[in-house]
C-alpha cells in the first residue's frame, strides 16, 4: 500500500494549511500534539499557540504533552480561542486541573477581599486573575464535551456562579476599602441571565442594589452603600493591570439611569407598587440575590414575588409585552438583522419571550412555573400542559443550539457578540466546535442555523400570539380560580342559570393529574367567560364536557383548543349558541379541527362530494355500506353548513346550496346501492334500464333547509324486456327511499315521491315515454307548477337531458289559459285556507303565513307559468333567480321584487336559525317563530350576535312579511281576470 504523505495526514486531521503545519513542526516531537489538535475547532490556529507555549513555557508544555487529558483540554482551548490561548501562554501555571469537571470556589474570591491590608490594585488584580483562571477550566470542560448542547445548561450555571463569586469578592474588597462600611447592609440582586443562572461567557451583568442602615441614619447608610457599589464596580469593570471582567449594568433598577443607584427595600417596594412598567415585572422574573447580605437579599426576592405574579392582570399586559418584543426587533441594525442569533426573528429572544409570557400569565395560579431558568420554565410548561410536548422539546433543543452557538462565537476572541460571522474560517471553527452530526463546515452550520431559526419563529408565533393569553390575563383572581364556592358565585354573576351543576362539570373536567386535566385547568377559566357570551352558557359547558369526554385523550384536541388562534373561541360560541351543533359535534368530533381556519368550513361542491364518495365506497362494497357512505357525507355537509352559518362565514343561499348538495350525494349513493342490491335480488348481471332520479320542490330548486324533505321522481328507460324493466325500476325506487331513511348509523333523509303522476296511486317509477304520455294528456296545472323546480339529481346524465327536454315545453311553453289562471288563483286561496297551521299564529308561520315563503314562491311560479315561454330568463328552478328575472323583464317593479326577496330571505334565515338554535330539524314548530324567550335569544344571537335583539326578530319578520303580502295580494287577488 502507498503510504500517506505527511501533508495528506495533516489535511485529514483538519489542517487547512498542512504544508505550513509540516514546516513549523519539522524537527519537533509534535505527533501527539498534532493528533490532539485534529480534534480541535481550528488545528491551524491551535498549532501556533502550542508552538508559542513550547518555546515560552517548556516545562508546562512537557506536562501538557505527558498528560492526555491536559493535552486535549489545551488543544481545544487554543484551537477555539486566540484570547484564551494567550491567557494560557501568559499563565502556564493555570493548566492544573484543566479538563476535569469544574467546581466554582467562592472562597478564593472572598479571601482576597477580606484582607484589609491588601492594596487595592493588588486585590483587584488577584480577583480578576482568579476569575480568568476558573473561567479557563469551565471553557476547557465545555469544549471537550462530545455533546456540548447537552452540557450547555451546566456550563451556563457555572459561568453564573463564577460571576456571583467574583461579585462577592469585589463586594468584600470594596467594604474593606470604604470607611464606615459596617454601618450599612447591602445586597446585590442579579437580573437577566445571571439571575437565571444561564449566563454567557461574555455578557453584561445586570444587577440591582438594595441597602438598609445598620443603625438609624438611613441617608448616611445609603451614601456609604453607594460608595461601596461604586468601588466594587471599579473592581470588576474599570481598566487595570489585569483585563476587566465585564460591564456591571444597574439600569434595570427603578427609574433606570435617572434613579438612585442604591435604594432601601421599602423604596423598591413603593416604586413597584406605584410606578413600575410592565417590562420591569418581566425583568424581575429572573431576580436572584447573589452577593452581600443574604437575609436582605432574600427579603428583597420575597417582597417582589407578588408584583411578578400579579403583573399579567394589569391592563393590556399581554398586548404591551408583545409590542415590546416587536420594538426589540425593530432596533436591530439592518446590517446584522439577517445574522442576529439573539434579537432577530427566530433567535434566542423568541424563545425567551415566549416562555416568560406564558410564565407570567399562568404563573399567578400555578407555582410550578415560578422558576428563573428558561429551560427549567420550558420543562414546567411542558410537564403541566401549557405547551405541547413536541413543541417544548423542539424549543428546548433549538434553544440549546442557539445558546451553544452564541458561546462558540464569543469564545473565539472573548468578545460580546450575538452575530453569526461571515468569515469562512470563523464559521468553520464554530461548526467544528459545535460537534453536531452533519455540521463540520461553515455552509452546513449556516444551513442548520436557518432551519432552527425558521422553526423557532414558527413556534414563537404559534405560542406567543395565542388568543388565550390576553383572555387569561384579563381574568381576575376570582375568575381564574376554579375553587367550587368562588366559581359558583362567579358563574351565577355572569349568567349561568345552574351554577351548582356547572361547577360539577368543571370538577369533572379538571380533577386529576392527567395532561388533559392540566390543560383543562388552563382553558376553562377563559372558556367559561366565552360560554357566557352566548345565550345558553350552561348548555355550552355541558356539551363541552360531553365533547371532551368523547375525545378522551386524543392528542390533537386539547392542543388545538390551547394553541389555535381561533378554534377555542369559535367552539365556545357555537356550543353556547346552537343546540343543534352542540349535539352534533360530539358525534363527529373531528369537525372541531375545521374551526382552526375558514377553508374547512367552506361548503363542498357536488363534485368534491362525489370524489369523497368514490373514496369511501372503495372500502364499503355492500349496498348498505354504500348508502351509509352517502348519508355520512350528508351529515358532514349538514354540520359544516351549520358551523359556517353560526360563524357568519356563509349566507343563506350558500347554506341552502350546501345542504342540497349533501342530500344530493346521499341520493346518488342510495341509487348506486339500491341498483346493486336489486340487481342481485333479480339475479341480473346488467341493469335492464337506465335510471334517473329527479329532484322536486326545494330539493330541485337547491333551496333545502334542515327540515326539508326530499321530493323525488323516478324515471327509467328500458333496454329490453319492458315488463321486467318496470318491476326492477319500481324495486330500485322503493329501495332508494328505504336506504335514505332506514338504519340509525347516519341521519335519515326523509323522501317523498307524491309529486309523481297520479300521486300515491301511480307507479313509483315510470319510463320516460310514460312520463311524456301522462304530461301530454293528463297533466293538471298544479303538476305543471311542481315541474318548475324539477332537476335531475342522480343517475344517467343522457336520460336526465332527455327528461328536461320532455318537461320544458310542459312547464314553460304553454302559458296559462284564463281557466288555468283562475285555477292557479283558486289553488293559492285553497292552500291558504286548508293548509293553515293548527295551534299556531298564522302570522308567525314562516312557510304558510301571510307574506311567508310559500307566498313568495307561488308568486314567482305564477309569473313563470304565465311568461316563461316568452322570457327565457324565467326558466329557472331558483326562487331568487326567478325574482331577479321577473324584475328585469318588467313583470315586477323593483320595489315589489325587493320586498318579496327580503321577506323570503329573512324567512329562510329564520328557518336556519330556529333549527340551529333550538335543535329542532323536523315537526310543525320548525316553521313557526318561537315565543319562548330563550329560543328567541338563541335566534337573535345567530342572526345578529345580539342577545338583546330577541324581540326585534319578531318585529323584523312581521314587518317584512306584511310588505311582501301586500305585493302577493295585488298580483294574485286584486287583478283577477
UniProtKB/TrEMBL annotation:
UniProtKB keywords: ATP-binding, Magnesium, Multifunctional enzyme, Nucleotide-binding, Nucleotidyltransferase, Transferase
Organism encoding this protein: Flaviflexus equikiangi
Domain called PII-uridylyltransferase/Glutamine-synthetase adenylyltransferase: residue spans: 323-462, 825-967
Listed InterPro entries: GlnE (IPR023057), GlnE_rpt_dom (IPR005190), NT_sf (IPR043519), PII_UdlTrfase/GS_AdlTrfase (IPR013546)
EC number annotated for this UniProt entry: 2.7.7.42, 2.7.7.89
Name of the molecule in the record: Bifunctional [glutamine synthetase] adenylyltransferase/[glutamine synthetase]-adenylyl-L-tyrosine phosphorylase
GO MF assignments: [glutamate-ammonia-ligase] adenylyltransferase activity; [glutamine synthetase]-adenylyl-L-tyrosine phosphorylase activity
Domain (Glutamate-ammonia ligase adenylyltransferase repeated): residue spans on this chain: 74-299, 570-803
Amino acid at each position: 500500500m502507498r503510504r500517506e504523505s505527511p501533508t495528506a495526514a495533516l489535511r485529514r486531521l483538519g489542517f487547512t494549511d498542512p504544508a505550513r503545519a509540516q514546516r513549523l513542526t519539522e524537527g519537533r516531537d509534535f505527533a501527539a500534539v498534532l493528533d490532539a489538535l485534529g480534534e480541535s475547532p481550528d488545528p491551524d490556529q491551535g498549532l501556533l499557540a502550542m508552538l508559542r507555549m513550547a518555546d515560552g513555557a517548556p516545562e508546562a508544555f512537557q506536562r501538557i504533552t505527558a498528560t492526555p487529558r491536559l493535552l486535549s483540554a489545551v488543544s481545544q482551548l487554543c484551537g477555539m480561542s486566540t484570547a484564551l490561548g494567550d491567557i494560557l501562554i501568559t499563565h502556564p501555571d493555570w493548566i492544573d486541573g484543566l479538563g476535569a469537571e469544574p467546581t466554582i470556589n467562592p472562597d478564593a474570591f472572598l479571601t482576597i477581599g477580606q484582607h484589609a491590608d491588601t492594596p487595592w490594585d493588588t486585590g483587584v488584580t488577584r480577583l480578576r486573575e482568579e476569575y480568568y483562571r476558573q473561567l479557563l477550566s469551565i471553557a476547557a470542560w465545555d469544549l471537550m464535551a462530545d455533546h456540548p448542547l447537552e452540557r450547555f445548561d451546566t456550563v451556563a450555571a457555572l459561568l453564573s456562579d463564577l460571576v456571583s463569586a467574583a461579585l462577592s469578592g469585589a463586594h468584600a474588597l470594596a467594604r474593606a476599602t470604604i470607611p464606615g462600611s459596617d454601618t450599612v447592609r447591602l445586597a446585590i440582586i442579579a437580573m437577566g441571565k445571571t439571575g437565571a443562572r444561564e449566563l454567557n461567557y461574555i455578557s453584561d451583568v445586570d444587577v440591582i442594589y438594595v441597602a438598609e442602615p445598620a443603625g438609624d441614619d438611613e441617608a448616611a447608610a445609603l451614601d456609604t452603600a453607594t460608595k461601596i457599589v461604586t468601588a466594587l464596580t471599579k473592581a470588576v469593570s474599570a481598566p487595570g493591570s489585569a483585563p476587566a471582567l465585564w460591564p456591571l449594568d444597574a439600569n434595570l433598577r427603578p427609574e433606570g439611569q435617572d434613579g438612585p443607584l442604591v435604594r432601601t427595600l421599602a423604596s423598591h417596594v413603593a416604586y413597584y407598587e406605584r410606578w413600575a412598567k410592565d417590562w420591569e415585572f418581566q425583568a424581575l422574573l429572573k431576580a436572584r440575590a447573589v452577593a452581600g447580605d443574604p437575609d436582605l437579599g432574600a427579603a428583597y426576592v420575597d417582597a417582589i414575588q407578588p408584583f411578578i405574579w400579579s403583573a399579567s392582570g394589569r391592563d393590556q399586559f399581554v398586548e404591551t409585552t408583545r409590542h415590546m418584543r416587536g420594538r426589540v426587533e425593530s432596533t436591530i441594525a439592518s446590517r446584522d438583522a439577517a445574522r442576529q442569533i439573539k434579537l432577530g426573528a427566530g433567535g434566542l429572544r423568541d424563545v425567551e419571550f415566549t416562555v416568560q409570557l406564558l410564565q407570567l400569565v399562568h404563573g399567578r395560579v400555578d407555582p410550578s412555573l415560578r422558576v428563573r431558568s428558561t429551560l427549567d420554565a420550558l420543562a414546567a410548561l411542558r410537564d403541566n400542559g401549557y405547551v405541547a410536548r413536541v413543541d417544548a422539546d423542539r424549543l428546548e433543543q433549538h434553544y440549546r443550539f442557539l445558546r451553544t452557538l452564541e458561546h462558540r462565537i464569543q469564545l473565539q476572541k472573548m468578545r460580546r457578540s450575538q452575530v453569526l460571522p461571515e468569515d469562512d474560517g470563523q464559521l468553520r471553527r464554530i461548526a467544528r466546535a459545535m460537534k453536531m452530526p452533519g455540521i463540520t463546515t461553515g455552509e452546513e452550520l449556516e444551513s442548520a442555523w436557518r432551519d432552527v431559526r425558521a422553526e423557532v419563529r414558527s413556534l414563537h408565533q404559534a405560542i406567543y400570539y395565542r388568543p388565550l393569553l390576553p383572555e387569561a390575563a384579563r381574568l381576575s383572581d376570582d375568575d381564574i380560580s376554579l375553587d367550587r364556592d368562588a366559581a359558583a358565585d362567579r358563574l351565577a354573576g355572569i349568567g349561568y342559570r345552574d351554577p351548582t351543576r356547572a361547577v360539577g362539570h368543571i370538577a369533572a373536567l379538571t380533577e386529576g393529574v392527567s395532561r388533559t386535566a392540566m390543560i383543562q385547568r388552563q382553558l376553562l377559566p377563559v372558556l367559561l367567560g366565552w360560554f357566557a357570551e352566548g345565550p345558553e352558557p350552561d348548555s355550552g359547558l355541558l356539551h363541552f364536557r360531553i365533547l371532551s369526554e368523547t375525545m378522551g385523550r386524543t392528542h390533537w384536541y386539547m392542543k388545538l383548543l390551547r394553541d389555535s388562534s381561533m378554534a377555542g373561541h369559535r367552539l365556545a360560541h357555537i356550543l353556547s349558541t346552537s343546540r343543534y351543533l352542540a349535539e352534533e359535534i360530539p358525534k363527529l368530533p373531528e369537525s372541531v379541527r375545521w374551526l382552526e381556519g375558514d377553508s374547512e368550513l367552506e361548503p363542498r361542491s357536488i363534485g368534491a362530494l362525489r370524489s369523497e364518495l368514490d373514496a369511501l365506497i372503495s372500502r364499503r362494497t355492500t349496498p348498505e355500506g354504500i348508502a351509509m357512505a352517502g348519508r355520512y357525507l350528508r351529515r358532514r355537509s349538514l354540520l359544516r353548513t351549520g358551523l359556517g352559518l353560526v360563524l357568519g362565514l356563509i349566507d343563506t343561499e350558500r347554506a341552502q346550496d350546501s345542504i342540497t348538495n349533501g342530500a344530493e350525494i346521499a341520493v346518488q349513493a342510495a341509487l348506486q346501492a339500491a341498483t346493486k342490491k336489486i340487481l342481485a335480488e333479480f339475479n341480473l348481471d346488467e341493469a335492464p334500464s337506465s335510471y334517473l332520479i329527479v329532484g322536486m320542490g326545494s330539493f330541485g330548486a337547491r333551496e333545502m333547509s334542515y327540515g326539508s324533505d326530499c321530493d323525488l321522481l323516478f324515471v327509467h328507460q328500458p333496454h329490453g324486456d319492458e315488463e321486467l324493466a318496470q318491476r326492477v325500476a319500481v324495486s330500485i325506487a322503493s329501495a332508494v327511499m328505504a336506504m335514505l331513511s332506514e338504519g340509525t348509523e347516519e341521519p335519515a333523509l326523509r323522501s317523498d315521491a307524491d309529486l309523481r303522476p297520479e300521486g300515491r296511486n301511480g307507479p313509483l317509477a315510470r319510463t320516460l315515454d310514460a312520463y311524456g304520455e301522462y304530461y301530454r294528456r293528463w297533466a293538471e296545472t298544479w303538476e305543471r307548477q311542481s315541474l318548475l323546480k324539477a332537476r335531475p339529481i342522480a343517475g344517467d346524465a343522457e336520460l336526465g337531458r332527455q327528461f328536461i327536454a320532455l318537461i320544458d315545453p310542459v312547464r314553460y311553453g304553454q302559458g296559462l289559459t284564463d281557466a288555468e289562471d283562475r285555477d292557479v288563483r283558486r289553488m293559492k286561496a285553497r292552500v291558504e285556507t286548508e293548509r293553515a297551521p293548527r295551534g299556531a299564529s298564522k302570522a308567525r308561520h314562516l312557510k304558510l303565513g301571510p307574506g311567508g315563503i310559500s307566498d313568495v314562491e307561488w308568486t314567482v311560479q305564477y309569473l313563470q307559468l304565465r311568461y316563461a315561454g316568452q322570457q327565457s330568463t324565467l326558466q329557472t328552478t331558483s326562487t331568487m333567480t326567478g325574482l331577479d328575472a321577473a324584475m328585469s323583464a318588467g313583470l315586477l317593479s323593483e320595489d315589489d321584487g325587493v320586498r318579496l326577496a327580503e321577506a323570503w330571505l329573512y324567512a329562510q334565515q329564520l328557518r336556519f336559525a330556529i333549527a340551529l338554535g333550538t335543535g329542532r330539524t323536523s315537526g310543525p314548530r320548525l316553521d313557526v317563530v318561537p315565543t319562548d324567550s330563550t329560543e328567541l335569544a338563541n335566534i337573535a344571537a345567530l342572526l345578529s350576535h345580539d342577545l338583546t335583539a330577541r324581540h326585534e326578530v319578531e318585529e323584523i319578520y312581521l314587518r317584512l312579511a306584511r310588505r311582501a303580502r301586500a305585493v302577493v295580494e295585488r298580483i294574485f287577488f286584486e287583478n283577477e281576470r
